[in-house]
Each structure stands twice: as C-alpha cells, then as structure tokens.
Amino acid sequence: MNLFYLSEEPLKAVRNRRPLISKHMTQWIGMTRHALTGCLVLICLSSFATAQTTADSAKEAQRLTRVAQVAQQQGRNEDAIKAYETIALVAKNSPQIAAAALLSAGNIYLTLGKFEQAANAFRRSITLDANSAEAQNNLGEALGELKQYPRALEAFQQAVALDNGFVKARYNMGVTYDRLGQLKYAEFVYRILIRDHPDFALAYDSMAVTLSKSGRAREAIPFHEKAISLNPNDPSFYYNFAVSCLMLGDLKKAQEQQQRLRQLDPAMADHLATVITKRQK
User: Fold this and answer.
1) Cα separation of 33 and 4, whole Å?
2) pTM of the entire structure?
3) Average of pLDDT values for 43-71?
C-alpha cells in the first residue's frame, strides 16, 4: 500500500500563508461588523421614526375627530366630512382609524341624501377594514337608495356573514328582497328574524306587508296587530294596517286606523284618508 505524504516544502508554504489569510479574514470580519452595526442603527432609527410618526398621526386623528364631531353637532356637515376625510389621509398607516373615519363620512353623506358619495366612502372604508359589518350594511343602504338592489343585497348578505346577530342588516335583506319582487325570500327572512328576535316590531310589520302584497291580507292582520302592540308610536304601522284592511274590504277597520294615526302624524293620516276615499269610489 502506498501512502502519500505532503513534502515539507509545501507544508512550509501553507504555514507561511496562514497569517496572510487570517489578517484578511480579520479585516473582513471587522468591516462586516461595522456594516451590520450601521444597519442595526438605521433599522432602530427607522423603527423609532415610524413609531413616532404613527403616534403623531394617532394624536392628529383624535384632534380631527373632535373637530368633526363638533362640526356635526353644529350642523356643519360639510366641515365634518372634510375632517373625517383628512383623518383617512393622516392615518393612512393606521387602517382601522382611517376606515372608521371614512365610515363616519359615509354616514353623513347618507343622512344628506348624497348616496353615491356615501357608497364611495363605505367602499373605501371596507377596503381598509374588510371585517366591518357596519360598513357593509351601510353600503347596502346607500346602494338601495340608488335602486341598485342586487348589489345592495350582496352587501347586506356580506354584513350578515360577518355578524349573524346584526339585526338591521338581516332586516334590510328582507326589505331588499321585497323591492326585487322576491316576496317568498322576504317572507323567509322576516319569519327567521321574528323567531330569533320576537320583540323586533319592524319584522312583524314588514312580514304583514309582504303577506298582503302576496294576496294574503287576512294572514297579515295578526302581524300588524303584533307590530303595533310592540311599538304603538310608529305611524307607519297604522298606515300599513289600514291598507291591509282595505284589501280585505274592511272599510270600518281602515278608518279606525286612520283616526289613531291622526294623533301621531296628521299629514300621513290625511294621505291615508285620500287612499280610503279612492277605495270607496
């Protein structure tokens, strides 16, 4: 068996080169350490600056929120909207804050009857906070006012998917099915709503209206009566009850509702009186 050894000369050469390699390595390690230290300093400074900016943005958002709320209380709705929209820009690094501000702006647009602007504000809010059931519901309300019922229904369904206990969104689903002429679906929604929330007066009234529209006015009467028993101060309940009575040919009962309605809303009672008169002819 042949064994191969390194000769002495090559070994000397290797030994002689070791200090040179070690020196280069030492210099490289030192440079690397300085570079890494510099990077860490920059990262820390950047993180500190980001944290400081976020804190400043949050403070400014709080200040502008107070400005918006005061403006809204004073009836300066346009100023309130500007403040909320400014918050969305200032707090762009805080999606939850920006989303809440846009939701508030959309709500004001909704009360002003500016439904297209309201829908846009709600969409922007949802982009920042996709889990907001309230923004989805309010988007549906704005789209409903724009008579974009299929899209409104999608928004209400999404709101319910996010929060199954959101009664308003579930009710709005029923209303939208009714507007789409899908009375069976509306009836289904109201029945489930009544089952889950037996004290929700609007569900009974809407159920009664849906039954009447379906040609089942007699079935509607107990639901009208239940709605009024739960909330005797809602004028629309008496008006709707009277219409169902007229559909059954019960003029006396309709006039009774009109008299009760006059105590709550004289203008609505006058309109109902006109409907009753036309029915008599």
Assistant:
1) 42
2) 0.76
3) 63
Q: Within a 13 Å sphere around the CA of 100, how many CA atoms are in the beta-carbon half?
A: 11
Instruction: Give percent of the chain above pLDDT 70.
Output: 79
Alpha helices in 180-265 (DSSP H): 183-196, 201-213, 217-230, 235-247, 251-262
CB 248 within 8 A of CB 217: yes
Q: What CATH class has 181-281?
A: mainly alpha
Helices 149-162, 133-145: inter-axial angle, 10-degree rounding: 170
**Cβ-proximal residues to 178 (8 Å cutoff; 6+ apart), any chain:** 186, 206, 209, 210, 213
Residues 108/140, Cβ–Cβ less than 8 Å = no
Query: What pLDDT, in 10s, does the model give residues 269-280?
Result: 999 999 999 887
CA–CA dist 196, 190 (Å, integer)? 10
Quote the crossing angle between the two packed helices 235-247 and 251-262, to the nearest 10°. 170
Average pLDDT of span 30-57 = 47
Q: CA separation (Å) from 117 to 106, 200, 204?
A: 7, 31, 33
Residue among 113, 111, 158 nearest 135 (CA) = 158
Q: In which residue are the tokens 């309709």 written?
A: 254
R_g of the chain, CA atoms, integer Å: 35
Domain boundaries, the chain: 181-281
Show the CA angle centred on residue 57, arms to residues 129 and 107, nearest 5°: 45
The gap from C-alpha 251 to its chain's centroid, in whole angstroms, comes to 44
- Tokens representing 149 are 């019922």
